Amino acid sequence: MRRIYKIAKAELATLFYSPVAWFILVVFAFQVGMTFVGLMEEKAQANTLGYAWGMQTASLLGGMRGLYTIVQQYLYLYMPLLTMSLMSREYSSGSIKLLYASPVTSTHIILGKFLSMMLYGLVLMGVLFIMVLFAGCVIDNFGFKEALVGLLGLYLLLCAYASIGLFVSSLTSYQVVAGIGTLVILAALNYVNQVGQSYDFVRDITYWLCISGRSGEMIAGLICSEDIIYFIVVSAMFLSLAILRLNSTRQYAPKGVMWGKYLGVIAGTCLIGYITSRPMMMCFYDSTETKRMTLTPVSQEIMNSLEDGMTITTYVNYLDRDAYYGWPEMVNDDKRRFKQYLRFKPDIKMKYVYYYDTVTTNPWLMSRYPGKTIDEIAKEESEKRDWDIKKMLTPKQIKKIIDLEPEGNVFVRLVERKNGQKAFLRLFNDMETHPSEAEIGVMFKRFVMDMPKVGFLTGHGEPSITGERKRDYLLFAGEKTFRHSLLNQGFDTEEVSISGDADIPGYINILVIADMSEPLTPGEMTKLNKYIERGGNLLIAGGAGKQSVMNPIVEPLGVRLLPGTLVQKKVDILPNSMMVNAVPETVKELSYHYEFMWLVRRFKVNMKDAVGLDYTTDKGFTVRELLRTDSTGCWNEMETRDFVNDSVVLNPAAGEIERMYPTALALSRKIGDREQRIMILGNASCISNDGVAGERGVAVANYPLVTGTFHWFSYGEAPLDVRRPNGSDVGIHLKRPDMPYVKIAFMGVVPVILLLWGTILWIRRKRN
């Protein structure tokens, strides 16, 4: 160890007495300082304007524009300049012969020079640490643990770069060639994950070898044993190759033996990488304050309840527009979406099945090949796109395994347990595309408990839960590509008829009665009353023109739909298209889904052809107003029917009254040991396909009305609550006038001090 230290000390002396090391240090300090000042300037400007940012630590260091993220992107440019002369200089000057003649081994030489690079790397990280300390002084409750984990990730990455550069430097006496060679190997390691993607074992090895983004999780605050082992093993591999290279120049050995040793080192590294990248071999540490890099406790509890084995099979239709996510070259990236779940249940098996068939998400494809069969289309597409059609199942073959037509033959995952339970996990037609923790968690929750069953009354002209008309309820009830539909949020839905001898099934937890055109018969009313008496939860939605049909249902509950149509004079939309407000007190009591959309973003709910609600509290229910109109400019229009061509005018003589009208009421009462919950809406179209989609250019919160209401109905069981506590690193003690001093300090003072220090050392050496 003493010899290694002496070699490192001599190398550092040579390094710091040369202008290259100081030049790199000064440039690094200035470049990092410029990035840091820019980020702090944004925060200071926001603080000056009175804006409060959460997660100050994460936004400063990580994310897409954070300090650590940017440093990671250009760190590889510095190391070739530092390492290209480590061994090349010894070869070109002839001093390597003195080293060979001295009592040191090749291992001592390589490890000594690598130690010098590790120490120099600490100096570079020290520049970053100064900025971290400053951030800790000006940001309240700064996340130092998270910051140090990110620094560790950058340092390990730098050490890996150093080992690569040292190995390449041992191959040649030309420093420029060594520098270029280092960049070539780094480039190869960045793109090696694209090699051998058609073979599972090779794909796993090359994906593990890829160095691109390897420190990303540590920058985000998560330590994974796989990443730590990667940096250690890869660095050890290149150091071992460098030692073997030096040994080959010191003593003769057959080429076959030497190449065998090289291949043995590489093979051993790949084997270690493959083993340690298995989910059951991984360990984790989340250094973030809110544990945002870990599943929420709710999801962890669900995963811990899944005791037996499980398989997630991804079915990829090559003709689907989203097939790209499951292509062989993307499999490992796709698997990373489940890394947090594999952390808590490492025995999950993931399979991929490839096929081709007609698909609902790619209608233009059929139009391009008129008159051709799907087999002919697939063959032509495979020739154009260089697909191996032999590895795809035909429509007949896939149907023998599973019928995916109900799913539209799109990209979909089937989750299966050993006990036979199954559930689909889908992609969604929105900007995020992939399911979030809420959708994945509630899918797993289906395996460990009975989820709420929602029945939609039918037989009286109600909207259909499978129809695509504007007034239908497909979008919020069962649309498979809509993230917030009840189907994807953990509810089971079905249509319920109570005509004839049919009754409301006992397993129905929530009953929806909406927009009926015909009244219930006395026998049907009796069945409904029995459901209400047994404490079943209920959503009742009416609207203008439906008062006579809906009032017999709601009046026994102490509620009445008022006559007329609610209107409000507006410039941009029709007067019968009401924009109603949430009642903050009720929102806070019932569901956080309401609070998120209305109290945070101040969105409103759009209701077309709504009616006001009147209520009493003498029927045993606690009544709370959830939605209501403005107190001025709103009235119940009794005369106008054509709101497109006619104007509305308040006419008190016709019974039109200008005041605030409730349009949604939440009723509750205690029945036995549980609380019965009933929601009454003065408008049925607000939760229809048209209403949930919203008007173009108008910010509305209609779909949270659905998710919030059913979250209340299900007593919080669904949708899954995956909220996290807010971080405490919110305040910052910097404002815009302070930034010139910060800029001078980090873009001027720090680089100048390093420059003067290096200049003084260089002059002193010249004098000596």
TrEMBL record:
PANTHER family xref list: INTEGRAL MEMBRANE PROTEIN-RELATED, MEMBRANE PROTEIN
Residue spans crossing the bilayer: 12-39, 51-71, 117-139, 148-168, 174-193, 229-247, 259-277, 744-763
Domain ABC-type uncharacterised transport system: 452-544
Highest taxon above the source species: Bacteria
Record-given protein name: Gldg family protein
Organism in which the protein naturally occurs: Butyricimonas hominis
Keywords in alphabetical order: Membrane, Transmembrane, Transmembrane helix
Keyword match Transmembrane: yes
